[in-house]
Write the structure tokens for this entry.
Amino acid sequence: MLGVWFFWSRTERIPCTLDLERTHDHFHAHVQLAQEVFCEPGDEIYVDGEPVSLAYGETRTMESEAVVKRASSLRRWWTKLVGRLEFHELYDVGFE
């Protein structure tokens, strides 16, 4: 029963805007959700649609749809716990 509660999730379909850029100054893909959606630890966001390829120097903004997969409360708690334990890996600095 605990395993079912851990992996249980609900999904929402939300319109979104994709901001894509592949230039000398920037190389990014940003997703802006259309509604006021607050994502919490453990939530996952998938963007639906065909893969997009950009030529060098191209910038594109397009509309699409995102699927927000909400985590269960147990999985949210687990993500917070594991995130705090692995926080130190983010600031590994080396001088050579």
About this structure: The longest helix spans residues 73-85. Residues 8-85 form one domain. The chain has one domain: 8-85.
